[in-house]
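Action item from last week, closing it out:
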Amino acid sequence: MAWRWHGDVGHFPPSRPREAKGGIKTQSKRGTFGESWWAKRWIAVLESFNIGARLGRGRAYARSGQVLSIDISKGTVLARVQGSRPKPYEITIKVKALSIADWKTLAKALSRQAIFAAKLLAGEMPQDIEKVFKDVDLSLFPSKLKDLGTDCSCPDWSNPCKHIAAVYYLLGEEFDRDPFLLFTLRGMSREELVGLLGRTAEKATGRKTRGKSMSPETQERSLPPEPVPLDVSAFWGRGRLPAELFGEVRVPAVPAALPKRLGGFPFWRGEQRFLEAIEPIYRQASSHGLERFLGQRAETD
């Protein structure tokens, strides 16, 4: 490939990427990546680093499905992006992780306000959580470009290149689905964070109740429950089930209610958005299920 020179820096001329099969498809509407405030904040932070036109080309790569895979672990993102060469480019993004001491300090600050723990346990990122980080001299999002260590196997000297930028955008969309991935990149999994918050709250409660005697009501509640009788026949019961056991059986008013509650599929690869693809299947399955239940459809169907 011919080189072009701009000043003292050499770079490759613009190239057209090869068509990628089975790549990750963005589910966001045209012009946006992510809908939650934390996903938009991630994108805004990246765009504030003045990476330049590479972000625009990265958006195009993300929308056309050029990103083949993304794997997120503590402090590290590994990805593969199909570019102009036959072999996909290997990408590594490292995010500066917080220390255990930092996480313990943060857990104490979060436990002072029950609303933060409640929202985090519900899978929601509290709106003011950035202030809690700031109050203890920490940051949830990368505060400067050097907080992100990036590498791509492509020949582009720019870092981050358009391939890395494409992964940045798809990460923002994935944070929309699972905000706890932000904590994972900072070095703490969801399970570890919830456990740390629980232990911090227990220590605080223990300090408040230390030296106080238990009331009779509390002692009674702390007694172990009575064992359940191990009588299998009594558990399963006998006789015919009452006709009203199932109540009213009908097609759900809201199709695909459970997937809608769970949110988007992680790194979806379909041409349609996930819910747009799955909802007609749920509608058809509900109708067939009702017919089977009412005995209107043959067993061989």
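Closing note: The CA atoms of residues 38 and 176 lie 7 Å apart.
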